[in-house]
C-alpha cells in the first residue's frame, strides 16, 4: 500500500505543471458537482477540499462561500506546490500535503467536505470515508465525485486484444461506493452517475492526455518497461474498431456522484453496521 501511494503521489506530482491544460474532464465534472452543491441549503464556516489537485475546486469553494475558511489537501506535493502559486493576498487557502486516509485534522472540524475525482485513487474506501466522516461536524455535508468501472472501457477492451496485463486503472461500482458511504455513518445517501465521452482523432492523443494529468496506469499488475512500437500498433488497430463514421475515437468515462450527511450524535468508536444497497437512493442517468 505504501508503494502504491508513493506511485500515485509521484505520478500526479510529475503531472502538476501540465495538469490544468489537459484536465478537460476534471473541470467539467467539477462544474457538475458544484451544480449539485448549489441545491444544498448550507452556510459552511470550515470547508475541506479532499484531493484538491492544482486547486481548481478549492478556489471555487473560497469564492462561493466568502465567509468560510477553506483548506485543500492532496497526496501529491507537486500538486500542492502548483496550487499555492495561485494564492491571493487576502483569503488565502490553507494547502497541505496530506493523505485522505489519514487526515491531519481534529474530529468534527469541517461543515463541508468536498472531493472531486480523487476518491477513485483510494486503496481502502472504508478507511477513506471513515476519515471523511471523522473530520465532518455532526450534520455536516459530504459531496463527491469519482469514477466507475466503465471508465475507459474502449481502451480496456482494446488492451485485452493485445495481452493479458492490466493496462487500465480499475474503479469501483457506484452501488458498492454507496454501500460504503452508508456503512461509515452517513445518512440520506444519494448516488447518481453520468457517462461522459471525450473524442480524439488519434489514440496517441488520448494517451498523451492521460499522462499529462497523471492518470496513466499505476496498477500494481501493470507491465513493467516501455511499450514497444509493435505493441502500440496492435493497440491502435484494436481501438480503431471503435472509430465512428466521422473518424473520431471515443473515450468513455463513467462518472459517479454522491452526497450524504454525517449523522448527529455519532460516538467516537465508529462501529460499522453492514447494510444493503436498498438503503441508499440511486439516481440512474
From TrEMBL:
Documented EC number(s): 2.1.1.197
CDD domains per the UniProt record, alphabetical: AdoMet_MTases
SUPFAM superfamilies, per database record: S-adenosyl-L-methionine-dependent methyltransferases (SSF53335)
Metabolic or biological pathway: Cofactor biosynthesis; biotin biosynthesis
MF (Gene Ontology): malonyl-CoA methyltransferase activity
Record key words, sorted: Biotin biosynthesis, Methyltransferase, S-adenosyl-L-methionine, Transferase
GO biological process: methylation
Protein origin, superkingdom: Bacteria
Pfam hit, one: Methyltransf_11
Annotated ranges, domain Methyltransferase type: 48-144
Bilayer-crossing regions: none
Family classification: Belongs to the methyltransferase superfamily.
PANTHER family per record: ARGININE-HYDROXYLASE NDUFAF5, MITOCHONDRIAL
HAMAP family in the cross-refs: BioC
Name used for this protein in its record: Malonyl-[acyl-carrier protein] O-methyltransferase
Lineage of the organism: Bacteria, Pseudomonadati, Pseudomonadota, Gammaproteobacteria, Oceanospirillales
Gene: bioC
Amino acid at each position: 500500500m505504501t508503494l502504491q501511494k508513493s506511485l500515485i503521489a509521484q505520478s500526479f506530482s510529475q503531472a502538476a505543471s501540465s495538469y490544468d491544460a489537459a484536465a478537460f474532464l476534471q473541470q467539467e465534472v467539477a462544474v457538475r458537482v458544484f451544480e449539485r452543491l448549489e441545491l444544498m441549503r448550507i452556510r459552511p464556516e470550515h470547508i475541506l477540499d479532499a484531493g484538491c489537485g492544482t486547486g481548481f475546486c478549492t478556489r471555487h469553494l473560497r469564492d462561493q462561500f466568502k465567509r468560510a475558511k477553506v483548506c485543500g489537501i492532496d497526496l501529491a506535493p507537486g500538486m500542492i506546490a502548483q496550487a499555492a502559486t495561485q494564492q491571493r493576498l487576502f483569503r488565502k487557502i490553507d494547502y497541505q500535503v496530506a493523505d485522505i486516509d489519514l487526515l491531519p485534522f481534529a474530529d468534527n472540524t469541517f461543515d463541508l467536505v468536498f472531493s472531486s475525482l480523487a476518491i477513485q485513487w483510494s486503496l481502502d474506501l472504508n478507511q477513506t470515508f471513515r476519515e471523511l466522516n471523522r473530520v465532518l461536524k455532526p450534520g455536516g455535508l459530504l459531496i463527491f465525485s469519482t469514477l466507475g468501472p466503465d471508465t475507459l472501457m474502449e481502451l480496456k477492451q482494446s488492451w485485452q486484444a493485445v495481452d493479458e496485463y492490466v493496462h487500465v486503472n480499475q474503479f469501483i461500482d457506484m452501488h458498492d461506493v454507496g454501500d460504503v458511504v452508508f456503512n461509515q455513518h452517513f445518512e440520506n445517501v444519494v448516488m447518481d452517475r453520468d457517462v461522459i465521452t471525450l473524442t480524439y482523432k488519434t489514440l496517441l492523443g488520448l494517451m498523451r492526455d492521460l499522462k499529462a494529468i497523471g492518470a496513466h496506469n499505476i496498477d500494481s499488475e501493470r507491465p513493467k518497461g516501455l511499450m514497444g512500437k509493435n505493441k502500440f500498433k496492435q493497440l491502435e488497430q484494436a481501438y480503431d474498431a471503435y472509430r465512428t463514421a466521422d473518424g473520431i475515437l471515443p473515450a468513455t468515462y463513467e462518472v459517479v456522484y454522491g452526497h450524504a450527511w454525517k449523522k448527529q450524535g455519532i460516538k467516537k468508536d465508529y462501529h460499522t453496521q453492514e447494510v444493503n444497497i436498498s438503503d441508499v437512493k440511486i439516481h440512474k442517468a
